[in-house]
Specification:
five-stranded mixed sheet, globular, 5 strands
C-alpha cells in the first residue's frame, strides 16, 4: 500500500489542461464558465464572472482559484483577460442584505452571462441552479476543479474581488481587509466590535457580532 501511494505522480499542467478542456468540450458549441468569489465574507460584494475561453489558445496553470497562490492568480488573471470573452459583476452588500446571498449570486451570474460579447450555447455553473437566463445552464459540483472555463472565471472573480478588498483596506485599515479579504477572522470580528461596521459590511451577516444600533463609520 505504501509503495502505491508514494508512486502516485501529480497531474502535470499539460495533463490538467487536457482534462479540463476535454470536460468543456463534452458540452459542445460555445461554452461559458460561471463562478463567484466572496459568498462567505462579512463585508464587501460578491464577485461573479462569466468567461468564454478561446479554443486556439493554451494557458497552462489555470485551476480552481482557491488552489492557487495569490501571486499565481494575479499572473494568470493578466493572461486570461487578454484572450477571454468575459464579464465580471459585483453585487453589493446592500443588495445581499435585501435579497440574501444566494439570490444575489444568481443575480450576478445572470448579469455576467448577459454581459458577454458572444452568446454561449451552454453555461457551466459552479453548483448554483435555476438561473433566470435564456442560455442552457449546467450546474456542476466543484466545477472550478473540472472545467477550464469555470476555473478561468473563478480566477477573474477572485482577483477582481481581492483587489477591491485591498482598496477597502487602504480606506479602513483597522479591519485587516488586505489579509482577511472580509472573512470573519478573529481580528476582523474584534475590530468590528471595537469600531463598528463600515457601509460595506453586510448587516445580515454581522448581526451576531454587533448591535444593530451600532453607529456606522462614515466615508
Amino acid at each position: 500500500m505504501g509503495e502505491n501511494k508514494s508512486a502516485r505522480v501529480r497531474e502535470t499542467a499539460e495533463e490538467k489542461f487536457a482534462r479540463m478542456t476535454a470536460f468543456d468540450g463534452e458540452y459542445g458549441g460555445i461554452v461559458c464558465g460561471v463562478d463567484e468569489a466572496g459568498r462567505g465574507p462579512l463585508v464587501g460584494p460578491v464577485s461573479v464572472c462569466a468567461c468564454i475561453m478561446p479554443k486556439d489558445v493554451k494557458l497552462l496553470g489555470i485551476d480552481d482559484s482557491k488552489k492557487l497562490s495569490e501571486t499565481k492568480r494575479e499572473a494568470l488573471y493578466e493572461e486570461i483577460i487578454k484572450v477571454a470573452d468575459y464579464c465580471v459583476v459585483f453585487i453589493d452588500s446592500q443588495t445581499i442584505d435585501k435579497i440574501n446571498i444566494l439570490e444575489a449570486t444568481k443575480l450576478g451570474m445572470k448579469r455576467a452571462i448577459e454581459g458577454l460579447k458572444k452568446k454561449p450555447d451552454v453555461a457551466i455553473v459552479d453548483a448554483v441552479k435555476n438561473l433566470d437566463v435564456t442560455v442552457r445552464c449546467e450546474p456542476v459540483i466543484k466545477a472550478d476543479a473540472k472545467s477550464y472555463s469555470v476555473a478561468a472565471a473563478s480566477v477573474i472573480a477572485k482577483v477582481t474581488r481581492d483587489r477591491f478588498m485591498r482598496e477597502l483596506d487602504i480606506k479602513y485599515p483597522a479591519y485587516g481587509f488586505n489579509k482577511n479579504k472580509g472573512y470573519g477572522t478573529k481580528e476582523h470580528i474584534a475590530a468590528l466590535k471595537a469600531f463598528g461596521p463600515i457601509p460595506e459590511h453586510r448587516r445580515s451577516f454581522i448581526k451576531n457580532f454587533v448591535n444593530e444600533a451600532a453607529a456606522t463609520i462614515d466615508d
